[in-house]
Amino acid sequence: MELREYREGDLEALTRLGVLAFGGSVSDWEGHFLPEKNPRLDPEQVHVIEDDGEVRASATALPLESFVDGEPRPMGGIAAVMAHPAYRRRGYAGDLMRAVLRDLREREVSLSLLSPFSHAYYRSFGYELVTEAIEYTLAPTDLPTSPEQRHLRAYREEDLPRMMSLLEREAASHPLCVRRGEAHWRQTIAHKDCEAAVYEGEGGVVEGYLLYKMSGWSEGREPPRRLQVEELIAGTRGAREALISFMGALDPETFRVGHWTSRGEPLHPYLQSSFVNAKIKPDQMLRLIDVEAALGFLDRAADEPLVLEVADDVIPENAGRYTVGGEGVVRGAEASETVALDVRQLAQLYAGYLPARGLARHGLVEPVSERALELLEALFPVGDPWLFGPDHF
User: Do the beta carbons of residue 207 and residue 235 sit within 8 Å?
Assistant: First the structure.
């Protein structure tokens, strides 16, 4: 067995592997593995297992950036972890994941996100759930309409720089949100199913936008068409009212509306009736590949330093004590207040996904005192971690 990087001659085999493992079309999978079609791909970070002369498994790390305390930081997005159906249960995926983690650490990438097929499986590599979404399925009549809708219009190419600026500002407010580069923006807008509407405010300035898809007519489905909102960004109250009105003004006999929002931006409390179809869906898992470097990204303050005693059963270099909350991050114990925790729960705190006190109540973090727990709460406040739909991988 050989575990190696991607070679140019692998394209046909990896394309076939993707179709067998996940479905989709040959052209879709060619697009994943060709840099000219996938602006987020680095072929050097496509890992391949070849055995007996055959390509049998592969995993890809996308060189992305995620926001941490408002600043973009390098992040490895794990995608297309796949094995040929005839060669599953041979440990290929595990070998690939360990190779990916080693490679990312050598590249000084401290954070990694992925969308799991199995939470238990990826926990075995030190990942833990850190984001969730609210999935809405709404009738247009569930949503309010507004005269602000008259300021909406269809997207024009010259709108893109302003839309990029609006997204950048919004993304920076969400822990771990992926930063979208211009090439990926253009690929998203150019997709045959993607439509965009913008809200034009005073002086012709774009103050918000909507990315959406409209399905065709489907016989036997009630209602027969669906509007799927991929992204809604509003920089002003008027823009938000107009974009929601866009959804609410559809014919309820013809359309259902699908929309995903972050945990911190629910729709239902602001509707005339809160009794709408809303489901919580788990989303991304996070891995701190280099704990010391990842902690160094945080811009946090505390009344006194705290020692984190971190356990990591996959990357032993991470295991140990870190003093935080003082002058940067110091390897070792330089304070009396200590919290013992696993790298997986540290990821949940790091993302702002779960409160420190809740984790302590469930026995998932172990503070030596009430004061240590208070310091942990101060260092890791609850936030609103989130990835927008077009940035998933």
Answer: yes
CA distance 181 to 198: 20
**DSSP state at residue 178:** B
Closest CA to 64 of 73, 55, 53, 51: 73
- State how far the Cα of 355 lies from the Cα of 70, in Å rounded to an integer: 20
pLDDT one-digit tens code per residue, 346-374: 999 999 999 999 999 999 999 999 999 99
Residue 302 has pLDDT above 90, yes or no: no
**DSSP SS3 for 372:** helix
Among candidate residues 343, 337, 347, the one with its CA nearest the CA of residue 319: 343
Contact predicate 338/309, CB 8 Å: yes
CB 392 within 8 A of CB 386: no
Cα–Cα distance, 223 to 108 (Å, whole number): 50
What sign does the dihedral 65-190-140-243 (CA atoms) show? positive
Residue whose tokens read 């970070």: 45
pTM exceeds 0.85, yes or no: yes
Burial class of residue 326, CB neighbours in 10 A (0-12, 13-18, 19+): middle
| Separation in Å, CA 65 to CA 85, 229, 329 | 32, 24, 22
Find the DSSP H helices in the chain.
Answer: 11-22, 26-33, 92-106, 119-123, 160-172, 182-190, 237-248, 291-296, 343-351, 356-361, 370-379
Q: Which domains does the chain have, with CATH numbers?
A: 2-109 (3.40.630.30), 134-282 (3.40.630.30), 285-379 (3.30.1050.10)
Considering only CA atoms, which of 52, 130, 107, 45 is closest in space to residue 81?
A: 45
CB distance 129 to 119 below 8 Å: yes
User: pLDDT for 140-199, tens place per residue?
Assistant: 999 999 999 999 999 999 999 999 999 999 999 999 999 999 999 999 999 989 999 999
Token couple for 188:
């998203």
